[in-house]
Amino acid sequence: MEEQFSSLTITLSIASSLVASWLFFYYLRFREKKIRRKIEELESEEEYIEKLSKGNIKLLRSTFIVILFAFVCLLIALAIYFVTSAAGVGANIKQYANVASAWFVIVGAAICIYQARSIIRAADLNKSKKKIQKQREALESRL
User: Fold this and answer.
1) pLDDT, tens only, 107-126
2) Calpha distance 120→133 (Å, rounded)
3) What is the pTM of this model?
4) Which residues in 100-118 are b (16+ Cβ under 10 Å) and which e?
């Protein structure tokens, strides 16, 4: 009995160490992919800010379109809210409509904040590029 218990313990120990090793390896790969993705995002943000600071007409138009899209999201949220309030729909539908309105407001606000950050960063290009470079170096050192 003791021998069976001992072999069972050894087998479970080996299996758990293999599973732990696999999980650790998976975590390292996931972390590396996440860091590389963040580095790519920083590079694209740096290019975007640089183009924006140079006054690229096409990029300014796209920024204007994105801000208008955010405005449309906010208008949709208001329309949903007012239509459900005026129509006198049931409490459940009104609750779902309020949730949908809240999501549209959140999406619109997030888009506006992202664009505002980009425009503010473009105002001081050198400082923004240095900050992005520091972030990239910190991420690359973690690889």
Assistant:
1) 888 888 887 777 777 667 67
2) 17
3) 0.50
4) ebeebbebbeebbeebeeb
